Amino acid sequence: MKQIVMTLLLAVVALTATAQSAEKLYREGKALYDAKKYEQAFPKLKAAAEKGHKKAQYRLGRCYEKGRGVAESDAQAVVWYQKAANQGYHKAQYQLGKAYKDGEGVEKDRKKAIVLFEQAARQENADAQYQLGKAYMKGKGVTADEKKARSYLKKAVKNEKGGDKILQKIKDDAKDGDEDAKRMLTLIK
After folding, report:
1. Any long-range contacts for 60-68 (C-beta under 8 Å, 24+ apart)?
2. pLDDT surpassing 90 at residue 10
3. Are the CB atoms for 78 and 105 separated by under 8 Å?
4. pTM, to two decimals
5. How far is it, in rounded angstroms, from Cα 114 to Cα 174?
6. Burial 103-137 (b: 16+ CB within 10 A, else e)
7. Nearest-angstrom CA–CA distance, 57 and 37
8. Gap between the Cα atoms of 60 and 66, Å rounded
9. What is the pLDDT of residues 29-63, one digit of tens each?
């Protein structure tokens, strides 16, 4: 019995050490990424991502998508976004949804995009809420539904994390003559 308890205790300690080292690698990598030192950030983020750190996996996807510290690869970005999305990380769910919507790194699939946007929107991701509002407004990947479009668009522009930027983008696009943006403005009044 003592042997089993000691084995379990050692396993817990090993898992905790791995998680802590992944978190440390992520924090160091993110700090370098934020400082635009992408070549230095990439190996730290990759090491944390390979240990299963969902935010590192997402950030590694961004590195591949934008060619930051590594050769640009939409396919590799999708691989890492998928890993983080599988762990429920809303930013990765949104980015993966965008990849499916646009057919970047994966075959275009609006229905998969909608599912991913819905997952992220439930976690208050403003960009996903905006994408769902547009999808319901235009009937892209879903049946057009003005009530749902209005609801998602209002949530997006009122969202504390990024809503002001989304509203400004809609206003700017409407000012530039974008008919969809003009329609969005009438929906969110």
Report:
1. 61/92, 61/95, 62/95, 63/33, 63/38, 65/95, 65/105, 68/33, 68/38, 68/41, 68/42
2. no
3. yes
4. 0.86
5. 24
6. eebbeebbebbbbbbbbbbeeebbbbbbbbbbbbb
7. 18
8. 10
9. 999 999 999 999 999 999 999 999 999 999 999 99
Pull the structure tokens for residue 128.
């996903």
pLDDT of residue 16: 44
Q: How does residue 6 score in pLDDT terms, banded at 50, 70 and 90? A: low
Instruction: End-to-end CA distance of the chain: give it in Å, rounded.
Output: 67
Closest C-alpha to 77, from 95, 90, 93, 89: 95
- Residue position matching structure tokens 């240990």: 51
Residue reference for tokens 């429920």: 88
Question: Distance between CA 135 and CA 45 in Å, rounded?
Answer: 33
**CA 116/CA 92 separation, integer angstroms:** 9
DSSP string, 84-119: HHHTT-HHHHHHHHHHHHHTSSS---HHHHHHHHHH
Max CA separation in the chain (angstroms) = 74
Token look-up 């690698």 returns: 25
